[in-house]
Predict the structure.
Amino acid sequence: MSRQSALRNPEVFMFDQAVETLPRDALAALQLKRLKHTLEHAYANVPHYRRAFEAAGAKPESLVSLSDIARFPFTLKQDLRDNYPFGMFAVPRPQLTRLHASSGTTGKPTVVGYTSGDLDRWASLMARSLGCAGALPGDIVHNAYGYGLFTGGLGAHYGVERLGCTVVPISGGGTERQVSLIRDFGANILCATPSYALNIAEVAEASGFDLRRSPLRCGVFGAEPWSEALRSNLQDRLGIKAVDIYGLSEIMGPGVACECNVMQSGLHGWEDHFLFEIIHPETLEPLRFGEVGELVITTLTKDALPMIRYRTRDITRLDDSPCACGRTHVRIMRVTGRDDDMLIIRGVNVYPSQLEAALVGLPGLSPHYQIVLTRAGALDAITVEVELAPGTSCDDDTRARKEAEVRHHIKSLIGVTCDVAVKGQGEVPRSQGKAVRVKDERKTSS
Ligand code: DLL
């Protein structure tokens, strides 16, 4: 579709219409063919998979239908760490065109690699995702995802170019400069983590630049959990449609799934390249469509790093009901959080994004928050730090009243009792990329 015809009906622009609307039968047949090839490729070329398949008594030829995938073993982040740095690759190292890696703050970094074919498919999937989100060929895309070993910056970058847009490769940080360039270049699309987009909105407002009156019309936000409340806040302040994009380095990077700008409800997971399953995170049994559990992904077209039944730890559910945009690919509903990020507050399981949903939009508060864990004796304590809205007076009485009000609100919405500390303006740290929602001071507090 040309930009001209797309602009006439920008709601349904598709980068790859034939594939995005492929009927379910055809999609399933394609998946089966690609899955067989991927299992053979992994078994033949990665000693880890050969050992793991044999231990599970599963051979690539034992796969006859898609549901046979359940016979194959899961792959964990630990498997990547155990095979650090290059042991999981299914092609000789000189065939890799690029490496990315996680920061490795909690152990060895996990390294992922791509052949030039993998990079080509990633660029196309990212272009498809951006189109799904509402970007059109010819747009100016301000890319504030971090460039470097993180997959966000470069992953989005090549997708923007593939779609036929102009990319502004600014990366994260230097927020005043970001705001100036959004204004001067007339950006149409903003790619950023939602928490960093909030930082950009705040700095723009402080500088007197009304983004709502700029050509910006769409935000492609992901890389961290966020809430409907934050979506509304960002849409109002930036004058855009904000859509959710999902991905992870081990599987590819950004562009594994993306919301459409028509429904903004669930992210279309690109099933011609990935097989999605939901399992019970404890029993590991496969769950049915609609049931909430852990997302497990198998890659179908990755040469360098095929991933078989990768346990993402991300909690969500799948929705296969038809979408108004016409895309047939399954929807992965908003990821509420990772099972390892879940907090247990006085016996109740809570994800930081649930607290966000309760806090953002409360009158008199800004949308910035942080959860601080401390230890008093043998007991863990949780304090939710929130921040007064600009211009709200900050005397002791106001603070105490607000704290009681927020405590009550959290209790009535989520059912947990936690301490609340109201901070003055600017006192809750601002995000530069992925927000640090939980500050764990338990090791340092007595
Ligand atoms: O965050 C890739 C990415 C970049 C996605 C830019 C979207 C936009 P990792 O650093 O490997 O890769 O982190 C992957 O981040 O397993 C989720 O826990 C979380 N995550 C990513 N997108 C979302 C989202 C990139 N839309 C991990 N909602 C994943 C909730 C998300 N969590």
In short: The chain has a mean pLDDT of 94. The domain at 343-445 is CATH 3.30.300.30 (GMP Synthetase; Chain A, domain 3). The longest helix spans residues 24-45. The chain has two domains: 1-338, 343-445.
